[in-house]
Amino acid sequence: MIFRRYPESIQNVNDNFIVHFTAESSELSRHTTPLTLKCSMKGLEKFYTPERTYGVNPGNFLILNEGQQCESLIENSSESFSIYFNPEFAGSALKSLITPSDKMLNFSFKKISQPVTFFEKLYPHNNYLSPVLMKMRLASKINFDDENWLKERYFELLENLLKLHRDLYKEIEKLPPVKLSTKTELYRRVSIAKEYIDLEFTDNLTLKKISGEACLSQFHFLRIFKSVYKQTPHQYLTKKRIEKATELLKRTDMPVTGICFEIGFESVSTFSLMFKSKFGLSPETFRESYRRHMTKFKFSK
Q1: Which of 99, 269, 292, 301 pairs with 149 at a CA distance of 20 to 30 A?
Q2: Residue 23 pLDDT more than 70?
Q3: How far, in Å, CA of 172 to CA of 149, rounded?
């Protein structure tokens, strides 16, 4: 079942279904969601729950558990793609997939009917779950609505969600030696701070501001963030800014000075130094080299 806009009452759809549409703007009022995967294949879609705000873009996807309260907002041209799991289907499928050794996966913040409560956060696309999403997106694009084929894909997604869940808890287990519930709470807080960086990296972010999002002391946050993401918050923030700078250098004629301030650096010399340490080239030389390469590529075709 494929919808080209959000149904008026999501709770009344008694099946698995896809919502796939493009829009310049869109709003979805607060509703209770089943287990859901939220993607944006183009642009940004913001999702609001009582706990936090998520910015879903082409580089990530969001998992929301059954029973979560959610609303969404699109303000610029976007391609929204969501997978909704029928609660009975998801419950039966997940129950068939888990084993007694997976009891630790049932740690949850809420009591809901899913046999596994997934960690609600933004996940980067990966090489086992994302290909299934891309297949389903293509099926939607060509209006391929074969019930049996789609049911197999829904089950395949749930298998891969469980793998993602197991892998996540392996990472949580590596945190400092405290009980699992404390490790999980620390991971949840650090994830909130990372997603804050992802949304606001062009602003003037300080360690104090970022650690405040996690409700942790600066020293404690720095230690846990580095343990989880294998880099410091400053390194991650710089990486996000340099990635955006690279995109702007390739696709726009914006002056280097303008790019520097657009992405959150306060000094052109600092920006140039950081960029050169990453690519071995100044921003200006990088742009010239990229355009020469693209010109040669066009003429060689």
Answers
A1: 99
A2: yes
A3: 35
Domain covering 236-300, topology:
Arc Repressor Mutant, subunit A (1.10.10)
Q: How far is CA 285 from the centre of its chain?
A: 32
Q: What are the tokens at 198? A: 């992802």
CB 10 within 8 A of CB 68: no
For residues 271 and 274, give the distance between their C-alpha atoms in angstroms, rounded to a whole number.
5
Fold of the domain spanning 2-173:
Jelly Rolls (2.60.120)
Parse the chain into domains and list their residue ranges: 2-173, 180-230, 236-300
Work out the pLDDT band at 99, boundaries 50, 70, 90.
low
Residue 208, classed as helix, strand or coil, is helix
The residue-averaged pLDDT of 121-125 equals: 93
Please write the tens of the pLDDT for every residue from 250-269.
999 999 999 999 999 988 98
Indicate if 236-300 has the same CATH topology as 2-173. no
The pLDDT value given to residue 48: 95
Can you say whether residue 215 is alpha, beta or left, with left for phi > 0 and alpha for psi between -120 and 50 degrees? left
Mean pLDDT for all residues in the chain: 88
